[in-house]
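Let's do one together. I've listed all components of the complex below, 757 residues spread over two lines.
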Amino acid sequence: MTAAGEITGQDRSMLHLEEMVLNMGPQHPSTHGVLRLVLHLDGEMLISVDPVLGYLHRGFEKLAENRTYLQYLAMISRLDYLSGIFMEWSYVRSVEALMDIEVPKRAEYIRVIIGELNRIISHHVAIGDFMLNLGAVTPFFWVFRDREDVMDMLEMVTGQRMMYNFMRIGGVRWDLPDAFEADCRKFLKEFPGRIDEYEQLITENEIFLSRTLGMGIIKPFEALDYGISGPNARASGVDWDLRREVGYSVYPEFDFAVPLGQHGDCFDRYKCRIEEMRQSVRIVEQALDSLCGGPVNLKLPPMLRPPEGDLYRAVESPRGEFGVYLVSRGGLRPWRLKLRDPTFSAISMIPKLTPGYKIADVVAIAGSLDLLMGGVDR
Amino acid sequence: MSDIIDFLKNFLPGFGIALSVIGASAVVFPFAMRRLWGFICDRLGPNRVGPQGLLQPFADGLKLIIKEDITPAQANRLLFLLAPAVALTTPMLMQMVIPFSEGYTMVDLNIGLIYVVAVGAFSVLGILIAGWASNNKYSLIGGLRAAAQMISYEIPLILTIIIVALLTGSLSLNKVVAAQDSVWFALVQPLGFIIYVIAGVAELNRTPFDLPEAESELVSGYNTEYGGFRFAFFAALIEWGNVTVWAMAGSTLFLGGWRGPFFGSPFWLGLKVFIMALVVIWFFTTFPRLQVDQLMSFAWKILIPLSLLNLAATGLFIVLWPENFLIPTAILSWSCIALFILFFPGAVKKVLMRKRLKLLAEKKLTALISGTGRGGIRS
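Okay, and this is what the predicted structure of the assembly comes out as:
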């Protein structure tokens, strides 16, 4: 029996093993919200893991059918509450594409700046929670210390710390405040040093390495089969980033790298997020440099009436491809709105990844996948 | 009648001192931990109750006392109530043989070292009872983890304590302190001292060996079902009481006990205990948690062979040079430490990388999927 192997039927009959069912969650310190995992255990060893979803179901897709296009914008950032900007972004992209709206250039730059800042704080939480799952308590506070700086900036721009409601169809809500650029540049200057600090505390630690190297390996084809995207897929070596492949918004103008892992284990997923934070800093710097003048939104009427049609638009959220499939029948409200959340795919991978590992590894693997239940239970 | 009075005369002072030491540690160390942890996290820590938050532990204790006392319906009531009391016996009894100062030992046993080992081994019992009696799967797993872990780490702990006995030539703790008049055993036997610290931290179930109460996996481990003051028993009195007596035994065995410059007094013992407890807190703030099998293989594959070799080498030196065995022991021990610092981290990384590649090969990783490949880097 190998560490990552499965327990064969022969082993079980020889050892007279008895299966224990442990219900982990929905109220549990390390399920980050309301994920419920039913663990079938053989001592410490996992035989199978069943995720049970639905504890945070709020009917997001159905509610869209009773809201006008603008009203729904206030709701959608509550979906994946750690990266609300990306939810809004993919929604406004789909509506804009349907109505064939050209967004002002300055608005696109502001979207990129806010989006990448939001990616940084989302990765902060991902890394902090992952380390908390591994039993390290200090990294969580370190990332939250720095997260607070970004949150202050986002609050300065949008008026909110998490549920931004900042994107508008045809632009953004308002322009950047005057004090923003200086604050942001100061942060961007300091932040790479702070990432080095995290790496000193975490990446160099032998216990951390022993807990993550070779743990929960996802093969590239597996990642594609399960529809995994974002850093989780890139850690497996799937060279796919919508910012580069689709090149939406003004991303083609920027010079940034897409970090790739080669092993697809927990360590690579962690490392990919660290590198993505560095790349986000680069993107924000370039966006600030090339920020042009002009209007930040189009003065559209509050009652939008997109033409009949349907389309799918996605953005690269911190957790992967977040997409909106929008069907319009020409009315004031969407006829149907389907949301594609990357975490849902990532959770579907857990039953495949975990058998053969120990209890502690299930939280490590779940933490490394950066699960967030807000997006899963729509 | 006079027998009873004599007994009480002997019993009560010791009981009172032991209890107040544990009480003091349950007040001082959680507070120190939170402030130090706050400092390490770049925040303030509790500083609202009283000057500099000094009254915070009392507020916490009061809050826990006035909470409702709950026993789970399906729990084994007798054992559930008994477990905290059983767990408290180790820190209480351990102090009986510790020399606090010149002539201030509650019981000067001539087999003090054996007593320390025996009482220390007792501490697993309370945790196991608590885990079993709670009728909760998390508690049960926590209790069983504690039993496996504490029995494994008992062995290197005992082996290093035997080294101290060899160096002293006696089992009495007073003699151990007297033998460190010229030089501390931590300087003669740094390897033994480090093994004592590591195995001790594992015995105490503190980070990075806090598997029995692993918060992120087992909610709170063996004490999940305990609330109110029973929880305070486990979380403050027993945990930090155990840390205190472990540090007391450690400073007596390796750091010269109550002896210090200028004057010998409980002050020095207290200072050494405090510093050793700070090391425990420092571990807590820095390390992630080990995995169960890694924990076991670390004990059985690294710590136990190492402490056996250390014991054999020390014994050999004592036989070879009965007069001054301290110098060769110190040379060997320090060079072991130097070798460890030089090569151990690299070796661990190499082993882990090899394991990773092996696991990867088992998973049959195929060619990388590529997008357009524009601007991509491979980290």
